[in-house]
Design brief:
Elements: H1 13-26, H2 31-37, H3 42-50, H4 52-57, H5 79-91, H6 98-108, H7 110-118, H8 123-140, E1 143-146, H9 155-172, E2 181-183, E3 198-201, E4 214-218, E5 221-224
Antiparallel strand pairs: 1-3, 2-4, 4-5
Helix pairs in contact: 6-7, 6-8
Length: 225
């Protein structure tokens, strides 16, 4: 003979608060009898009694079945601030790399960083673990590595943009001698190249920086425009 499985009863926060209030209002002394009369398992009732203060003071929605706080605790306690920093850099059309996140943590959360590294076997292991932790944090918040792609605009549109920028450039820098204006496509210039990829939020398109290969030489400095 196959016995049917016992169906587990589901109680909401409203049910728990109502039964606890009814118990105190009734003045009942025998808790086992009270739980039996209200069709609540005695083991369940004992758990409610142990957490009575937490249940009655909870501000969680009454239709919820839990008090909240379940799940794995975050390893980065300042996750909201770090995420804000990442989005702010992206909104300003700046690259976001794990290196930038480490630098931000070193400047603003140095105490946490020192404690995190000290808990590892060595400093090298600690920073490698931190790098992996930050990559998981980025993936959890829908940030992935992206690379510049080939433009899908037509050649007519690209030519119009190119001519418009050329007119704007020569108007803006008309006071400079032509000998100080160099074409980076034809002249060997050395400058810090941006990284090949950046961390960007999925579904968010804010990368509008126009890359041009024209430089202005002023006081022995090369400024990429």
């Amino acid at each position: 003979m196959v016995t049917a499985k016992r169906q587990q009863q589901r109680y909401t926060n409203r049910d728990r608060k109502a039964l606890l209030a009814r118990f105190h209002a009734s003045g009942c002394v025998n808790e086992k009898q009270f739980s039996r009369e209200n069709n609540v398992k005695y083991q369940t009732w004992q758990g409610w009694r142990k957490k009575e203060q937490q249940i009655t003071s909870s501000k969680r929605h009454s239709r919820k079945a839990t008090l909240g706080g379940q799940g794995r605790k975050p390893m980065i306690p300042f996750a909201a601030d770090l995420l804000y920093y990442m989005r702010e850099r992206r909104s300003n059309n700046k690259y976001v790399r794990v290196f930038h996140l480490m630098q931000w943590i070193r400047r603003h959360k140095n105490d946490w960083l020192v404690a995190y590294i000290a808990a590892k076997k060595s400093e090298e292991v600690g920073f490698e673990s931190l790098r992996c932790l930050l990559l998981r944090f980025c993936a959890r918040n829908r940030f992935t590595h992206r690379k510049p792609c080939v433009s899908k605009l037509s050649q007519v549109v690209l030519d119009s943009v190119w001519l418009g920028y050329a007119a704007h450039f020569h108007t803006k820098y008309a006071d400079y001698p032509k000998s100080t204006i160099l074409n980076a496509d034809e002249t060997g210039l050395y400058f810090d190249m941006p990284p090949g990829s950046t961390l960007a939020e999925i579904g968010n398109r804010r990368w509008h920086t126009t890359h041009t290969d024209v430089g202005v030489v002023t006081q022995r400095k090369v400024v990429q425009k």
